[in-house]
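Table 4 source record.
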Amino acid sequence: MSLRKEILEVSRSMLIEKGFGKMSMRKIAAAANVSATSIYLHFKNKDELLLALMEDSIAQLAEALSNSINGNGDALYKLETLADTFLRFALERPQEYEIIYMVRPEEMPKFPKDKFQHIRKVYEMLADIIEEGRQQGQLDVDDPLVSAYTLWAQLHGIVSVILSRRLDTRIARDKFIEQAKDQIIQGFITQKTPV
């Protein structure tokens, strides 16, 4: 593993466990068992390091989503596949997910506008699939971009319940995930479309 990657891994864990305010380049260096000087060869300050973490996490999510559909299937199949992939990514890689969506904004440096293009591509990919489904008569939506954000918000709700350990212990986790996801997708499907 390269030193840069190791620094990012240590920083990712520290951010989730302690929060941005309690991090320092010195603490990161100590946890990575390197000198602070060596960190500064890769990142000029803590803000730059954290922005690199966000960018890396966003790229990983975008790649997972893009690879999951790979142009195959109709819009409904793609939508279900993307939802499955999003949930799997969030639950199997909670640190990356939390850095993108759950770290409090006031704890993070301001994310530059040009960097938002990466995360916007995820929503735009989803919006394009929803538009495709609308044109095929499978999905009943007015505004594909609003629907993409709505779908994300609902999936994020599922993830948040699980990652925050708020799921009722009487409910099986896998059953909850599958049923919640199916009900969310059903909300976008036209009544005439068989499921």
